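Q: What would this chain look like folded?
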Amino acid sequence: MKKLESSLLNMTLVLTGVAVIMGAVLAYVNDLTSGPINEQKEKALADGIKAVMVSDDIVVAHTDTVKQNDAKGKELTYIIYQTKNAQGEDLGAAVESTTGGFGGDLRVLVGFNPSGDILGYTLLEHAETPGLGAKADKWFQKGEKGDIIGKNPQEPLTVSKDGGQVDAITASTITSRAFLLAVNNAYTAYKATPTDGETGATKQKEEE
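A: My prediction, written as structure tokens:
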């Protein structure tokens, strides 16, 4: 077999061939893994909704999207999971809310009862400093120093340093402010949603 002549053209052809093959392999692997990854995300969200609503007897009756502008005029998007029990009784809603924390986006899932009282919360995403801002996943839970469970953000929750009623995470005031802002915004979005869950987004989905 004749040895392939070393030339710029041949080198280019070989490299192109390798790139095409590797691209095909990566696409195949991505196709294999995307399904299980999406299933894990869906399960994590479903478990999160049960956790923040403090109930296993729960059904997501509607998933709505609400867009609102923050104090700086930036449009923010909230996903609201309206929930009911097996008997069809309204349990309130779990709301996804995102704000900018100290290290990046802070995405929170907050559960509210029909009156707007906080049932529970969980962090879905954050980039806060380990040992400091990352403590937000526990700090504001029931019985902890910054306990917000049972509070109603009709009057926005703020840290004590700003004259509020919530103790900030030690050495992480910025993260604490961002977290409480996410909770306050989640409450506002929840209260802006019609009680029957019939937002424009829901109607559009049903008509399609």
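Residues 153 and 190 are 11 Å apart (CA to CA).
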